[in-house]
C-alpha cells in the first residue's frame, strides 16, 4: 500500500506516496515520523510525503506541524469514483531551506492575479494554432531529424533541470506509460514544441486502482509562443478518453508563463511546495531563502484537473464544431 521511501540525492530530499488507508491522526503521525527518521539518516533538508485521505479526515494541523515541522503544502480533491478522497502533500524543510517571505509572497500574488483573467475556451485555443501547426502524438522510434530537434528544445528549455536530457528523450517515446504530444509546423515540417504526461497507477488498500498522470512543462524553440496550452489540452483530451482520474503538474513558481498556461486551460491551483527541488536555468524572478541568499532549490506550484475537470475539457473538445 505504499510507494517506498526514496532519497533524491540531487534534490537532497525524501519522497514518498502512501496509498494505505489512513483513518486517524495516530497513523498519519507514525508515517511522518518514519519519513523524518529516514531523512535524518540521509541528511536530507526536505521531506515530502503524499497521502490519500478521506475528505472527512479531521486535520489537527497543529499536531502535524508539531511533528518535526511538517505542514500541509497542497491538497488535491478527487472526484468521480474517488470523490470521497483527497491527495494531501505533507512537507517539511530545514530552516536554511526555507524561502524568503518576499519570494513566497511574490510568487503567490502572481498566481492570485491569474484568476482575474477570462480564459479562452479549449476549442478556441486549439483552433487558433491549427492553421499553422499540426498537434500530433509522438510514439515509437523517432526520425533522426525529430530526435535532434527534441534535444535542441529540451536543452534550451530545461537548463539546470535534474535529469539527463538525451536519456529522457530517447526513453519517453518508447515507454507505454508516457504520452508525448508535439506541435509540427505545417510550413516547414519541423517540431516547435513538445509536452508529455507520465502515468502512474496507485493501488489503494481497499482494492481500487487510482490512475493518475503527471504533466510536464513544455519544451519549445525559443522563437515561438502559444503552443504550451494547446499541447496540454491535447494531453488532457487523451486522459479523458483513457478514463484517467487525475492530471496534475508541479510547475516552477518563478516561471510566470508556465503557471499562466496551467490556469488558462482550467487547472485548479492546489498548493505551494517550498524549495521543492534543485533546479537551475533562467527564471522571471531570483529566488532567495530565509537568509536572503540566492538558492537553486526552486519553489513549485501544484496544479490539477480531477475527473470532473478532465471531463469538462474532454467533452468540449470532443463536441462537434458549430461552425
Overall description:
With 323 residues, this protein is α+β, with helices and mostly antiparallel strands. It has helices at residues 25-42, 61-65, 101-114, 122-129, 144-157, 165-172, 228-241, 256-264, 307-318, and strands at residues 2-8, 13-18, 46-54, 71-77, 85-93, 133-138, 178-185, 191-203, 209-215, 219-220, 246-252, 268-278, 297-306. Strands 6, 7, 8, 9, 10, 11, 12 and 13 form an eight-stranded mixed β-sheet that branches. A five-stranded mixed β-sheet has the order 1-2-3-5-4. β8 (191-203) and β9 (209-215) form a beta hairpin.
Please provide a brief summary of the model:
Helices cover 32% and strands 32% of the residues. With 323 residues, it is α+β, with helices and mostly antiparallel strands.
Give a count of the beta strands, DSSP E runs of length 2 or more. Answer: 13
Beta-strand percent range: 25-35%
Report the structural category. Answer: alpha+beta
Helix content: 25-40%
- What value does the Rg take, in angstroms? 20 Å
Feature tags:
9 helices, alpha+beta, single chain, 8-stranded mixed beta sheet, globular, 32% strand, 13 strands, 323 residues
SSE inventory with pairings:
Layout lengths: L1 E7 L4 E6 L6 H18 L3 E9 L6 H5 L5 E7 L7 E9 L7 H14 L7 H8 L3 E6 L5 H14 L7 H8 L5 E8 L5 E13 L5 E7 L3 E2 L7 H14 L4 E7 L3 H9 L3 E11 L18 E10 H12 L5
Parallel strand pairs: 2-3, 9-11
Antiparallel strand pairs: 1-2, 3-5, 4-5, 6-7, 7-8, 8-9, 8-10, 11-13, 12-13
Helix pairs in contact: 5-6, 7-9
Amino acid at each position: 500500500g505504499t510507494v517506498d521511501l526514496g532519497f533524491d540525492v540531487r534534490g537532497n530530499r525524501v519522497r514518498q506516496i502512501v496509498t494505505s488507508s489512513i483513518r486517524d491522526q495516530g497513523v498519519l503521525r507514525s508515517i511522518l515520523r518514519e519519513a523524518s527518521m529516514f531523512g535524518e539518516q540521509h541528511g536530507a533538508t526536505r521531506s515530502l510525503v503524499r497521502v490519500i485521505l478521506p475528505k472527512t479526515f479531521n486535520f489537527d494541523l497543529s499536531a502535524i506541524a508539531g511533528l518535526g515541522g511538517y505542514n500541509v503544502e497542497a491538497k488535491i480533491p478527487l472526484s468521480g469514483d474517488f470523490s470521497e478522497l483527497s491527495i494531501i502533500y505533507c512537507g517539511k524543510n530545514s530552516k536554511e531551506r526555507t524561502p524568503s517571505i518576499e519570494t513566497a509572497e511574490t510568487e503567490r500574488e502572481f498566481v492570485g492575479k491569474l484568476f482575474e483573467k477570462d480564459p479562452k475556451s479549449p476549442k478556441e485555443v486549439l483552433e487558433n494554432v491549427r492553421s499553422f501547426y499540426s498537434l500530433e502524438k509522438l510514439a515509437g522510434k523517432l526520425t533522426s531529424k525529430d530526435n535532434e530537434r527534441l534535444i535542441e528544445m529540451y536543452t534550451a528549455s530545461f537548463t539546470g533541470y535534474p535529469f539527463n536530457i538525451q536519456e529522457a528523450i530517447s526513453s519517453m517515446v518508447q515507454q507505454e506509460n508516457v504520452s508525448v504530444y508535439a506541435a509540427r509546423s505545417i510550413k516547414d515540417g519541423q517540431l516547435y514544441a513538445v509536452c508529455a504526461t507520465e502515468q502512474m497507477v496507485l493501488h489503494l488498500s481497499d482494492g481500487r486502482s487510482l490512475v493518475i498522470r503527471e504533466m510536464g512543462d513544455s519544451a519549445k524553440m525559443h522563437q515561438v509562443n502559444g503552443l504550451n496550452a494547446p499541447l496540454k489540452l491535447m494531453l488532457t483530451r487523451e486522459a479523458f478518453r483513457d478514463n484517467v482520474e487525475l492530471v496534475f503538474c508541479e510547475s516552477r513558481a518563478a516561471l510566470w508563463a508556465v503557471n499562466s498556461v496551467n490556469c488558462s486551460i482550467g487547472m485548479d491551483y492546489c498548493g505551494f511546495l517550498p524549495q521543492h527541488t534543485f533546479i537551475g536555468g533562467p527564471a522571471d524572478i531570483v529566488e532567495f531563502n530565509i537568509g536572503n541568499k540566492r538558492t537553486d532549490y526552486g519553489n513549485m506550484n501544484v496544479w490539477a484537473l480531477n475527473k470532473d475537470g478532465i471531463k469538462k475539457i474532454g467533452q468540449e473538445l470532443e463536441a462537434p464544431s458549430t461552425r
